[in-house]
Design a protein that fits this description.
Layout (H helix, E strand, L loop, with lengths): L2 E2 L9 E2 L11 H28 L4 H11 L2 H10 L30
Helix pairs in contact: 1-2, 1-3
Length: 111
């Protein structure tokens, strides 16, 4: 999204939008993504076992598919329970100019 400065006396130039929150993706979105990863990894286990049965004449290939299918549930649970890392990104933040509240000099009037 690009914001164009259309204020009176503005230059009409494009300005990056200002981020006013550091909100993470919603819990529902994050949970749905983790469920998809879990289902994909658990779905890979069944074809590995089927392929091990298909290649039972080649014992080393069948053993390879069985060995690949053993850690898949453990890995799937670890991936599904892990939150994604926070992204380090450069964002446009609202920064106000530092202005003096009072003038720097004070006069003392003696009466």
């Amino acid at each position: 999204m690009v914001v164009v400065n259309r204020s009176p006396g503005g230059s009409g130039r494009e300005v990056d939008p200002v981020l006013i929150t550091e909100a993470a993706p919603s819990y529902e979105d994050e949970h749905a993504a983790r469920k998809r990863k879990y289902m994909l990894m658990m779905g890979m286990r069944f074809p590995c076992l089927i392929l091990a049965g298909v290649f039972y004449h080649t014992w080393w290939l069948a053993l390879l598919f069985i060995v690949l299918s053993i850690p898949l549930p453990w890995i799937a649970v670890l991936v599904a329970n892990d939150r994604p890392p926070r992204k380090a990104e450069q964002v446009s933040r609202y920064e106000r100019e530092a202005r003096a509240i009072e003038r720097g000099e004070h006069r003392i009037i003696e009466g």
